[in-house]
Amino acid sequence: MAAATVTQMFATEGYLNKTGSVIRPLKVNVKPAPDPKLASVVGSTSGSDGPISPAMALKRFGRVLTDYEKKEILDYPQVYFVGPTAAKIRAPPKTTEDAAAKAANYGYDNSKARYKTVKHDHIAYRFEVVGNLGNGSFGDVVKAFDHKRKRHVALKIIRNEKRFHDQGAVEVKLLEHLRLKDKNNKHNVIHMHEHFVFRSHLCISFEMMANDLYSELKKGGFKGLGIERVRESASDLVQCLRNLRRSRIVHCD
Kindly report the CA angle at 31 between 26 and 36, in degrees rounded to 5? Predict the structure, then answer.
């Protein structure tokens, strides 16, 4: 299977006992424009608008893949992107007996079990890391380009520890519930696209939003927001909270 779901990976761990963070930032009517440079990378990687097989990827891009990736890629029936120009982490093969390498997730994790993202490298042979969006207690968020759907996404990468696996599983469950309750996208709750496990990290992709409140204030020289803007944002926030209350969900922040 290409990328295990969180349910498949943690089904026997007895999770779903905490809450996740689901509030969307204030709405700003700005849509991120497609990046033509990234679009051209799709063509140079896959050779077409669709995916290629792992065998074809190895034949065409084996010279830029690490020993670890040459084994790993065989688990992905469809390859959309391999990060051909990225300064990849030179992870040893999974067959290594090096205990230190295994403890650090073959070099892909730092000392705090956070995934070491590399700009322009792939996530799950589909997403291209574009840049960092932020980090929190449970993981990091990067801006990524989805070479399958041809769109930018916010990709949350949960830390590789059991307690964070459990927390992430709860967040996925809540996000799936809220998405079903907001089919018409009217309740100002961020929508999860999908979730999967990559290199022992739970990953959750979200719609790409515009600025957060701090960035929006900074852009305006910290002069504050007009009363109409504040009224609109307050209305959006209350509508979101009402929806959470109906679902008996408390936002822990």
Answer: 145
End-to-end alpha-carbon separation of the chain, Å?
A: 36
**Contact at 8 Å (CB) between 67 and 93?**
yes
Residue bearing the bigger pLDDT, 216 or 142: 142
List the one residue out of 222, 164, 123, 153 whose CA is nearest residue 9.
164
> Tens digits of per-residue pLDDT, 37-61?
443 343 344 445 689 999 999 999 9
What mean pLDDT is predicted for residues 199-217?
89
253 classed as catalytic: yes
Q: Which of 67, 109, 140, 253 is catalytic?
A: 253
- Map tokens 């980090």 to a residue: 135
In this structure, are residues 154 and 141 in contact, taking their beta carbons and an 8 Å threshold? yes
